[in-house]
Amino acid sequence: MKFTMTKDEREQFLAEPHVGIVCVSEAGRGPLAVPVWYIYQPGRDLWFLTSRNSKKAKLMQETDRISLCVQTYTPPYQYLTVEGPFSILDTVENEHHLEMACRYLGEDEGKVYVETEKNLADIRVSMHPEHWLSADYSKESA
What we know:
By secondary structure, the protein is an alpha+beta fold. It has a single domain (7-140), classed as Electron Transport, Fmn-binding Protein, Chain A (Pnp Oxidase, Chain A, Roll), CATH 2.30.110.10. 26% of the residues lie in helices and 32% in strands. Strand 1 (20-24) and strand 2 (32-36) form a beta hairpin.
């Protein structure tokens, strides 16, 4: 059985609101792997928000590529990893925070989150997915 997702399946899966695990290399250690909310639209770059003072942002100053992994938590399991070059954008608008919060919390809770959160992210990381690795174990019964 072949469990690999097609290009369309991969892009649709990545576009769903999973919590991603971003991985950034760290000299002398294993890569840093931390959860992030992200946004992806098929055929475009994915992006997430963070603080310029976060450990991941500091490590990104020392590399030119990152990875992101997303998965389901119930059978039949599916997962996807993307890897590629990224850029850091210093301009983060309120609309970026609102779009992200509403994606993961729903419209009402997302608005409250953005209005009340005191430590909103100040940089946006945009990653171009170049290499994809995926598995869809629902194909086992197909």
